[in-house]
Amino acid sequence: MRKKLFVVIAIILIGVYTMNNLEANENANVKMVTNMGTIELELYADKAPITVENFLKYANDGFFDGTVFHRVINNFMIQGGGFTIEGVHKTDIYDPIQNEADNGLSNEVGTIAMARTNKPHSATSQFFINVKDNKFLDHTDKKSGWGYCVFGKVTKGMDIVDTIKIVPTQVNPKTGMQDWPVENIIIESVKIVK
After folding, report:
1. Could you report the per-residue pLDDT of 126-160, keeping only the tens digit for each?
2. Parent domain of 43
3. Distance from C-alpha of 34 to C-alpha of 32, rounded to nearest angstrom
4. Furthest CA-CA distance within the chain
5. Among 7, 19, 27, 144, whose CB has the most other CB atoms within 10 angstroms?
6. What is the pLDDT of residues 11-62, one digit of tens each?
7. Does residue 111 lie in a domain region?
8. Where are the alpha helices (DSSP H) in 40-147?
């Protein structure tokens, strides 16, 4: 009797584990509400599972709510996910993640990718949306050209991205950061819709 019960429990646990892994590799859809409009994204968990999981954890924690697009460069990209309206750098909740830029995805117009420092495995919460094809940011090799990990694409609201990319910018008087929008572009919320 105990052996049968153990087998049944083992089968149930294996089933739950398998279902969780299948769900983890399903692409996710998120809605990013800004004070300029809504941007919808599909995130490619099948191509960048670590990166998507990290982004979704930050979204679920409400980390992005009230942050701004703090770096806007027309004909390049718009970057957000790490600074408040006041120019304060938010403390990251999670450790930096493994760079998955070798996933075959390219930094093409409308894609979302992880921002990072000069260290290849330093991405945390900050991301950027490419406003033109930036193939020079793609992975080339693991010694000198790690690249920037693309993990999704804008599916709706590219007109909002195109509006953001041309806003006037300045050197932020509080932080000294360049390319900071004169008028704050606030990320009000990032919610998972699927």
Report:
1. 999 999 999 999 999 888 789 999 999 999 999 99
2. 27-192
3. 6
4. 73
5. 27
6. 444 444 433 443 556 899 999 999 999 999 999 999 999 999 999 999 999 9
7. yes
8. 49-60
